[in-house]
Amino acid sequence: MTIKEIPLIINGEKVRSQSDVWLDVLNPATQEVVAKVPVATKEEVDAAVASAHEAFKSWSKVSLTNRMRIMMKFQELVRQHTVEIAELITQEHGKTLPDAEGEVGRALEAVENACSITRLQLGEMANNAATGVDVYTLNKPLGVGVGITAFNFPVMLPAFMFPPAVACGNTFVLKPSEQDPSATIRFVELALEAGIPAGVLNVVHGGPDAVNQLCEHDDVKAVSFIGSTNVGTHVYNHASKHGKRAQAMMGAKNHMVIMPDANKDRAINDLLGSAFGAAGQRCMANPVTILVGEARNWLPEIAERAKQMKVGPGTQRDADLGPVVSPQAKARILSILDSGVEQGATLLVDGRNCIVEGYEKGNFVGPTMFSDVKPDMDIYTQEIFGPALCVLEAETLEEAIEIINANPNGNGTSLFTSSGWAARKFENDIDVGQIGINVPIPVPVAYFSFTGSRASKLGDLGPNGKQVISFWTQTKSVTARWFEPDHQDGSAVHTTISLK
To answer: Aldehyde dehydrogenase domain spans which residues (predicted)?
Structure first.
């Protein structure tokens, strides 16, 4: 079988890298090498930025209407190629095909939000703010933007970045994860097919050296990152140090609170789906549940349903979860799960020795569930990023809120209840940026902004919604006064700063 080579995209062309370093891209279910991805050279990264810098001169002057029309064509192409893109995601990431198709759907939401650029990029105006004076703002593009994305959503995360940035009149260099790049490349190819001009959207691959080079480059104006806390903190600090506007959406430890008045079946099903779907490789997964009051009695049933979940390759449509992305990820997950046993948690469901018939080499970890979890255990303090669920218990909603607010992360949290009073108290008292009420994964639709908080986020502005436009534009304020052609002002010099 011929193994495909992942290209760079520079100045609108697919380019074979001249790098001496190429990494294997593996199918997580089989360990088969399905592609090779280059670590771009310093010269290639520079060429991508130079291409974007040059393209900005013309692209920034393209009308809002024409940029919107390209985004509309792009979303239609993505919709037409949903199955193809999902298959690429599954082949290299491992998530199930229905889940991959769902990811493409969420990416489409973000592209559709960029189609609203003619409304979102409007400025403000005060006519006659002072006598004969108008004051207005212009939301102007920044220049070259950079996006750095994690492996877990190879299409959705880029969709949070380059469509709004490009729609705002910026140009872009994307550095996707080297673990599953094929779907990202196909996504970008469709954007170019939709009419994005040469140089406006570029792709390079690589590791820390490429990331640092992009953060340091004089022509880069803004850097957006989504991924782990350690890397995100470095990217944010390094980019900021070099004068870039920066945002970093990072790690999480989300909690789902189940009240005794919740719809029992729906709450349990949504809990298990949010904890174990995508093999737990979501920053918005719910790896912790807090059972309140009488809901603690549901613990045996939750564990029994977890045991019934089906593990298999992502191509098997009836599988509930597929493999984790790599052998290294599996080893890390198992190490943390082992620590849970060693530190005294009760192992209710053990997925550590999961083997799928016919896929014995796959990176499979089955649903794993702990009770008697304490807040100082590694399984609670660390983001496992695998199919693991920690169960805590509380007497009251107030106690559950205290537990969540004591955790440093603030990406997302959910409450399942039939009480409007409890829901309102929860959403007002909880110190977390994204809240679900009877919704297990509270990522808002893309015309609202992604609003993770505290240790899960660095930077004031998040992706999507109106905030994404604020991040990818700079505001210019204009104060203007126009005089009649024959206006006579006399010889008095104006030394005050007031406008009257």
So the answer is: 17-478
Q: In Å, what is the CA distance from 339 to each residue of 141, 276, 368? A: 49, 19, 13
| Per-residue model confidence as pLDDT tens digits over 168-215 | 999 999 999 999 999 999 999 999 999 999 999 999 999 999 999 999
On whether the pTM is more than 0.85, the answer is yes
SS3 letters across 427-450: HHHCCCCCEEECCCCCCCCCCCCC
Report d(CA 106, CA 111) in Å as an integer: 9
**Rounded to an integer, what distance in angstroms lies between the CA atom of residue 263 and that of residue 258?**
9
| Calpha distance 126→107 (Å, rounded) | 37
Cross-strand partners of 31: none
Q: Tens digits of per-residue pLDDT, 282-329?
A: 999 999 999 999 999 999 999 999 999 999 999 999 999 999 999 999
Place of tokens 């970045």: 161
pLDDT, residue 110, reads 98
What DSSP line would sit under 313-368, residue for residue? Answer: -TT-TT-SB---S-HHHHHHHHHHHHHHHHTT-EEEE--TT---TT-TTS-----E
Containing 478, the helix (H) or strand (E) segment is strand 473-481
Residue closest to 365 by CA, chosen among 339, 334, 389? 334
For residue 140, CA distances in Å to 299, 380, 475 come to: 54, 44, 6
Which DSSP string do the residues of 252-315 spell out, in sequence order? ---EEEE-TTS-HHHHHHHHHHHHHGGGG--TT---EEEEEGGGGGGHHHHHHHHHT--B--TT
